[in-house]
Specification:
The structure holds 2 protein chains of 2 kinds.
Chain A lengths: L23 H11 L1 H18 L1 H4 L31 H37 L1 H15 L3 H12 L3 H28 L2 H8 L4 H9 L4 H25 L10 H10 L6 H29 L8
Chain B lengths: L1 H27 L5 H13 L2 H10 L6 H14 L12 H36 L4 H15 L2 H16 L16 H35 L2 H8 L4 H13 L1 H25 L4 H11 L2 H29 L1 H4 L2
Classes of the chains: A mainly alpha, B mainly alpha.
Chain lengths: 303, 320
């Protein structure tokens, strides 16, 4: 799952930033024109976020309420996505699942990418022994396939929402560390840094006020491109039984429940949660691609 | 060349060592108490202090961490990998019994990913930004968004409903050559599902790499001397364009190793991934510790092998 687009060479500092400052609406129009596909899927992503926020209102039934008069029903007019073996409404559970999925993905990516980015900033800027040791540690972390590392951490910490967030966040740290470090290394050689230094700016000042702002674009690119992966890892953890413990309605848990339901799981219990994962990941991946194209035009079409 | 190989292996050795430290730290230090991991927070409260002590002694958890770590390294060196908490067989025996199946799945999936990905990349690169290229792009983006384990569940379910077919669940230890029919039935499904995601990455990488190579002077020369277009691509451009794809394939092995855990669970494949799933659910930290280390170690070593192969093929890397 190591996305090749995240190799340090792929994300460069946004030296060629958008030419003229635009308002919010102008920026959105620009975005829609540049990549209509991404804009469309960005709207889908927004809809999914809205659905997650308004889950209790949108969902026709409470996600944990079992109705013993309608157990394991195929999709019908009162239960559009059918019900599971203890009579819980699948549609409501899928809608509530978006909540967990998005909270975990956003929190984990924000936490992991931010920690990694600051680490990378320090590595690139300080260099020396700190950098050498840090690069080794990052290499050790990257030697683990990310789901396996997340599984081990989630198991060691015991299951729960916070542990899943931490587990996924730790797998995201190396990417931030690598990418931001390489960005900082090339920024450090630029003349504006030299100018600041000749004006007598301290190291801390250069790092925080001159280099850090330039890292924002690659940071945003990193964060958005990792949302999809985070959602898939969260679902996989749930599916493997080390995610957020049941009866919490997460997509991974629902798929695991379906598998545990019997030798032949009812098709609607398998189909709908997976479709939800696929659409959400697709939306966030394409939205992330669009963000990357707009923030860093040189990468357009290269990956 | 030799100095490159030696340097690469030495660096890999350091990485494997670092990996073992991280695995050990995650498994022993993070939860505070490994018994909590085994018995769960509720089971923990039911144990008396004396029971707790005797378990700790028995499992070697009462020793100082350094000693435990050294013992573990010694176990690895002996090839035993320690013992499961719940099962009679040693972890080394389990790996030997279940490992081949997962290895076969991984190899087959890499082969399938090349068979699926490269032709798509060639078509896309020769006709960039046409309908064919865009279709390929949409398909590969979709393949990356579909969770493999879910696709696996759908395939199992579809075969069951459509044809009443279910892959055999036995023959864990059988080699491909002893009982090819059964083994193939078991591994084809998981390998195909795992190949799709890899193929998507490979198609994207091979496309951009081929687009770059096609613009090179030597390809233009080949065309200029009147060589047939198909021969130019297959004999001159493709071999060079595939070098980065080989490296990518090595990196994607991480994708396969990790992905095989939920995918084996979905197919009910009795491989090593399924053992990892069991270990995580039984909270068997000893199995988990060794399997995580094994997976990471194998991943590191395969990538070293890929690097050496690339250096052997491509002299530009050797002399850098």
């Amino acid at each position: 799952m190591t996305a090749p687009s995240d190799s340090p060479a792929a994300v460069q500092p946004a030296a060629a930033a958008p030419p003229a400052p635009r308002g919010m609406a102008g920026g959105l129009r620009h975005f829609a024109r540049r990549s209509p596909l991404s804009a469309f899927w960005g709207c889908i992503a927004l809809l999914i976020v809205a659905m997650a926020v308004a889950a209790p209102i949108v969902a026709p039934y409470p996600p944990l309420k079992s109705d013993f008069r309608s157990m394991q029903q195929a999709p019908n007019e009162s239960h559009w996505f059918g019900t599971d073996q203890i009579g819980r409404d699948t549609l409501s559970r899928v809608i509530h699942g978006s909540r967990t999925s998005l909270i975990v993905a956003f929190a984990a990516v924000l936490l992991g990418t931010t920690l990694g980015s600051f680490w990378g900033l320090a590595c690139g800027f300080l260099g020396g022994r700190f950098d050498i040791v840090s690069q080794r540690i990052i290499e050790f972390l990257q030697a683990f396939p990310d789901l396996i590392l997340a599984m081990a951490i989630a198991m060691a910490l015991g299951s729960g929402t916070v542990t899943v967030i931490i587990a996924i966040a730790i797998t995201r740290i190396p990417f931030g560390g690598r990418v931001i470090r390489s960005v900082v290394l090339s920024l450090k050689e630029m003349s504006f840094v030299e100018a600041a230094r000749s004006l007598g700016a301290s190291n801390m000042r250069i790092m925080l006020f001159h280099i850090l702002p330039q890292c924002v674009a690659p940071y945003l690119i990193l964060a958005t491109t990792h949302l999809g992966v985070a959602i898939i890892i969260e679902a996989s953890l749930g599916f493997l039984g080390v995610g957020i413990p049941p009866p919490a309605p997460t997509w991974g848990n629902m798929l695991a429940d379906a598998l545990n339901a019997g030798i032949v799981p009812p098709w609607w219990l398998v189909l709908f949660p997976g479709v939800a994962i696929t659409i959400t990941v697709l939306a966030f991946n394409l939205f992330g691609d669009g963000i990357r194209d707009v923030l860093d035009p040189r990468l357009r079409g290269s990956v | 060349m030799y100095s490159y190989i030696v340097r690469r292996i030495a660096l890999g050795g350091i990485t494997v060592f670092g990996v073992s430290i991280i695995v050990f730290l995650i498994m022993r230090v993070m939860p505070g108490d490994p018994l909590t991991a085994i018995f769960g927070p509720e089971g923990m409260t039911k144990l008396t202090e004396a029971q707790r002590q005797s378990y700790m002694e028995e499992l070697g958890l009462a020793d100082p961490l350094i000693v435990q770590y050294a013992n573990w390294l010694w176990d690895i060196a002996k090839g035993e990998l320690g013992r499961s908490f719940f099962r009679a067989e040693s972890i080394g025996e389990m790996v030997l019994r279940r490992g081949p199946l997962t290895a076969q799945i991984a190899i087959l999936s890499v082969i399938l990913s090349w068979i699926l990905g490269i032709p798509v990349a060639i078509v896309s690169a020769l006709r960039p930004n046409t309908a064919a290229d865009n279709t390929a792009r949409v398909i590969s983006i979709t393949c990356l968004a579909v969770p493999g384990f879910w696709l696996g569940m759908l395939i199992v379910l579809g075969l069951l409903f459509g044809f009443g077919y279910r892959a055999p669940q036995t023959a864990a230890g059988a080699g491909l050559f002893e009982d090819p029919g059964t083994v193939l039935q078991i591994i084809v499904g998981p390998a195909f599902v795992l190949a799709l995601g890899q193929a998507a990455y490979i198609a994207r990488m091979a496309r951009s790499s081929l687009l770059e190579v096609i613009r090179e002077d030597y390809v233009r020369t080949a065309r200029a001397k009147g060589l047939n277009g198909r021969l130019v691509v297959s004999l001159h451009a493709l071999p060079n364009a595939l070098l980065p794809v080989i490296t990518l394939s090595g990196i994607l092995l991480g994708f396969v190793l990790a992905g095989s855990i939920p995918v084996e669970r979905a197919f009910g494949t009795p491989g090593l991934g399924y053992a990892m799933f069991n270990a995580v659910n039984e909270r068997d930290i000893f199995v988990m510790q060794n399997l995580v280390f094994l997976y990471a170690g194998v991943f590191v070593m395969l990538n070293i092998a890929v690097d050496i192969v690339i250096a052997w093929i491509d002299p530009r890397i050797r002399y850098r």
